[in-house]
């Protein structure tokens, strides 16, 4: 025991049908359900998405002491009005507390907010945190508004002021004829989305404006960003006329965010450690979905290049700091 899993999701089996094209849940049995978008099937889920006892048993099997439980992004409702998204968020956040209440203190709920409306997002964050949430998960964009959008920056500033950890998850990949096969939206689009949003934080001047007390973590190892960090740095220096819009070169900001470890191969994890430092990587699993890692932390266990201290940092120490909890040792 000892691992802290920073990245998992849930779907409540009690999710109500809110109509108006919002995602709904077709419950097929006590153990299976289908997320529906209108009349189309989106994703099949099983009871590990909502049953805390199943989740705890899987955590025990994988040696996970603490798990962050975040919304499934399809329920963000960012395409709706702020009022509708607020209604969805309040229901989702309250059900999350019910699920995590049976988690023996090992399940830490992260809320969602109507990010398209900064005032409503800040108010719902405050309500959720007061009720027992431990952080917030946000999508990486609102339509064409990226993380350097003024409203989103206002929300990130609010999170910094409230000392609330923020987990950023890619979502809303646009469907095209080229990516509408082989799960390409998830295999190619998601890494691209995260990469683009990290660029927006740097080149959009967000890190120059928001205090370094903001606790920010990106899913899926930061997408394709770590691999292309050298290209980014090179472009900043050699095409300053186009992209040197931040006060400092990109490498200056690498200590301003963390990433999870859902990269599956030791070679990829080594790139993260070499690029960001072992103090900026935390175990994530993407549980309970098929594209996640089981056993949780397997890539860390297989990475023999890590020192004992680096292994501890990635398995639980960094996440404990990020979450503001005692290390589970």
TrEMBL record:
Keywords: Decarboxylase, Lyase, Metal-binding, Zinc
Class in the EC hierarchy, top level: lyase
Keyword check for Lyase: yes
Membrane spanning stretches: none
Pathway: Secondary metabolite metabolism; quinolate metabolism
EC number(s) reported in the record: 4.1.1.45
Keyword Zinc in annotation: yes
Amidohydrolase-related domain segment(s): 4-325
GO-annotated molecular function: aminocarboxymuconate-semialdehyde decarboxylase activity; hydrolase activity; metal ion binding
GO aspect biological process, one term: secondary metabolic process
Pfam families: Amidohydro_2
Top-level taxon of origin: Bacteria
InterPro entries in the cross-refs: ACMSD (IPR032465), Amidohydro-rel (IPR006680), Metal_Hydrolase (IPR032466)
Gene Ontology terms: cellular component: cytosol
Listed SUPFAM superfamilies: Metallo-dependent hydrolases
Subunit structure: Monomer.
Family statement drawn from the similarity comment of this UniProt entry: Belongs to the metallo-dependent hydrolases superfamily. ACMSD family.
Name of the featured protein: 2-amino-3-carboxymuconate-6-semialdehyde decarboxylase
Source organism of this protein record: Klugiella xanthotipulae
Organism placement in taxonomy: Bacteria, Bacillati, Actinomycetota, Actinomycetes, Micrococcales
């Amino acid at each position: 025991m000892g691992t802290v899993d920073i990245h998992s999701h849930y779907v409540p089996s009690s999710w109500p049908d809110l109509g108006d094209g919002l995602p709904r849940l077709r419950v097929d049995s006590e153990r299976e359900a289908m997320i529906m978008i209108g009349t189309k099937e989106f994703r099949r889920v099983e009871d590990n998405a909502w049953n805390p006892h199943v989740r705890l048993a899987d955590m025990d099997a994988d040696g996970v002491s603490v798990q962050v439980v975040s919304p499934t992004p399809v329920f963000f409702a960012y395409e709706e009005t702020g009022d509708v998204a607020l209604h969805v968020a309040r229901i989702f956040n309250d059900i999350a507390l019910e699920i995590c209440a049976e988690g023996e203190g090992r399940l830490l709920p992260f809320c969602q907010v109507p990010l398209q409306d900064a005032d409503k997002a800040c108010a719902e964050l405050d309500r959720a945190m007061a009720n027992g949430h431990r952080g917030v998960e946000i999508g990486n964009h609102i339509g064409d508004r990226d993380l350097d959008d003024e409203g989103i920056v206002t929300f990130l500033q609010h999170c910094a002021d409230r000392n609330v950890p923020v987990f950023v998850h890619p979502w809303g990949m646009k469907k095209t004829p080229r990516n509408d096969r082989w799960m390409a939206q998830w295999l190619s689009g998601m890494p691209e989305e995260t990469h683009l949003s990290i660029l927006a934080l740097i080149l959009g001047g967000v890190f120059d404006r928001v205090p370094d007390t903001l606790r920010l973590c990106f899913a899926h190892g930061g997408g394709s960003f770590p691999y292309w960090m050298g290209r980014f740095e090179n472009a900043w220096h050699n095409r300053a006329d186009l992209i040197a819009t931040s006060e400092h070169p990109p490498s200056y900001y690498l200590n301003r965010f963390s990433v999870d470890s859902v990269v599956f191969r030791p070679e990829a994890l080594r790139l993260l450690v070499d690029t960001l430092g072992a103090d900026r990587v935390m175990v994530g699993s993407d549980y309970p979905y098929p594209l996640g890692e089981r056993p949780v932390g397997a890539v860390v266990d297989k990475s023999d290049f890590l020192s004992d201290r680096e292994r501890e940092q990635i398995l639980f120490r960094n996440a404990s700091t990020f979450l503001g909890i005692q290390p589970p040792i």
